[in-house]
Amino acid sequence: MQIKEKEKQEEAAKEEQNAYHADMLHYSKVACLLQSREAKEKRVMEKAIVDYRLQYQQPRCQQEYDLTDPDHCRKTDLGDAQMMPPGLLGEDPDSESRRQRQREQLREWLIQQQSELAAERHQRKIEEQRYDQSRVDMDNKALQLQSTEMERRKAATLATKEYNLAKIEEKRHQEEEHNDEGVDVEPTLGMVGVPGLCPSSDRRAPPESLQHIIQFQKYQIEEKKRVEQERKREEEQNDRVRLDSARTALLIERQQARLNKQLRRHLDSTNVKLAEIHKQQKPDIERGCIDDSFFSKFNTCSR
């Protein structure tokens, strides 16, 4: 039994190996065919390119030839051909001179940039100097204006002082003239009886004027005390009014809170009573206590 199974397994493996080899051979043939076809297509493409170049890309049609005279190279003699400059094909004989010109042009550009930078720095320096000079001029002008203002104030002060001195001198002169006119030529007993006392030199106020001054000062002191007392009384009254207002507001707030509490209690008790009444009026469906009024609630509208 085992031998037969082993033989069957060997035959199956052999068949699988043969199928694999057959597939490999088939794929190899297909690959060879594809490779040969690709090579053939490549040769055909290269041949077509060569034919196109031979037909449409002749040397006389290139850029090196003169478009107005494509046969110029054919017409060129061998002697003229020998006069062409030696060197490799496509080499520029003026490359050295061109590089020299490029270096000179680069040097000129650098010199121009340096000169522009120098001019810009010089211009910036000039602007800074102008700005500094303008600041100095403004400071000098401010100092000049300040000194002018001080001189003007000084002159005004001197003028005011001179005016005051002149007014004082004029007043003193008028008082002297008034005293000279008011002096009696005939001396009285009172004047003569007090030795060393000159009537014109006594500048004290008479007793009546001193009494008036003292009374006026007392009146001012009393008026000031009265104003202070009134202000103090007004402040005390305002404080009392504020305290009364605060106390009244607190009492009103407490009363309002008490009323709200009472209303809440009354509302709660009313709700409890209504709930009990509703519960008593509600039919007990579970127990089957349903009367005719329960059915009369249905079909009472068009809906």
Automatic annotation (TrEMBL):
The keyword Acyltransferase does not apply. Its main location: cytoplasm. Residues 77-103, 171-190 are annotated as: Disordered. InterPro entries: RIB43A. The keyword Nucleotide-binding does not apply. It comes from the Eukaryota. Keywords: Cell projection, Cilium, Coiled coil, Cytoplasm, Cytoskeleton, Flagellum. Residues 217-244 form a coiled coil. It is found in: Cytoplasm, Cytoskeleton, Flagellum axoneme. Belongs to the RIB43A family. Microtubule inner protein component of sperm flagellar doublet microtubules. This is RIB43A domain with coiled-coils 2. It comes from Sander lucioperca.
